[in-house]
Design goal:
Layout (H helix, E strand, L loop, with lengths): L4 H9 L7 H12 L6 H6 L4 E2 L7 E3 L13 E2 L3 E8 L2 E6 L5 H11 L18 H6 L10 E5 L7 E4 L4 H6 L5 E2 L3 H13 L1
Antiparallel strand pairs: 1-7, 2-4, 2-7, 3-8, 4-5, 5-6
């Protein structure tokens, strides 16, 4: 089986520990040092490919929005924690819409919602929109909430193992169309701090 970019970063960093903020930050730094990575190749070589999502897991996938002509910009390869299924798709938190520092702060807050400390295939976030709205520690989530339509998903879903969430967060996997990431980050910060 091919080694994924997530596994390579962890192996090169020399640790897979998630039990401390210090360990998570160290891994995030190592992932941020990766300069180029192909999101499509990352999805294709992933060991946990699926056609269905489970709320609370992290997924990377290719997406082509139905209303892309009307959107100021969009992420063609979202990195999402789905939190609500709907008839035509799902709502999720696309972490790519936040600059790295705010992404880390939101992820640290989200770790408080995990259902167990195993950091294995049973580990998920326990989140919904009401929980996110009600807690100040989640205040960075608002610009990240997106509605994804099943018939506009253009790949299988790569489920990211919980031990690799911090690596995935900081790899350069986002591919924004119609704007660069600095514009997206600036708009997200305006929504958060208005």
């Amino acid at each position: 089986m091919a080694t994924t970019i997530f596994q390579n970063v962890i192996r090169n960093a020399g640790t897979g520990a998630r039990n401390s903020l210090e360990a998570r930050n160290w891994l995030r730094q190592k992932a941020a040092e990766v300069r180029t990575v192909s999101p499509r190749a990352t999805i294709q070589q992933g060991p946990l490919l699926t056609n269905r999502i489970t709320t609370g897991n992290m997924y990377l996938f290719a997406y082509d929005p139905k209303t892309k002509d009307d959107l100021p910009y969009y992420d063609r390869f979202p990195l999402v924690f789905p939190f609500r299924r709907v008839q035509d798709g799902f709502y999720g938190i696309n972490m790519h819409y936040l600059p790295p520092l705010l992404r880390a702060k939101l992820m640290d807050a989200l770790y408080d919602t995990i259902n167990n400390d195993n950091m294995d295939e049973t580990t998920r976030l326990r989140i919904n929109y009401r929980i996110l709205q009600s807690a100040a520690k989640f205040r960075f989530f608002e610009p990240c909430v997106k509605h994804y339509l099943n018939n506009h998903v253009k790949s299988r879903f790569l489920q990211v193992d919980p031990t690799q969430w911090d690596v995935a967060l900081f790899l350069p996997l986002e591919r924004f169309a119609k704007a660069n990431k600095l514009k997206v980050y600036a708009d997200s910060k305006k929504k958060i701090y208005q």
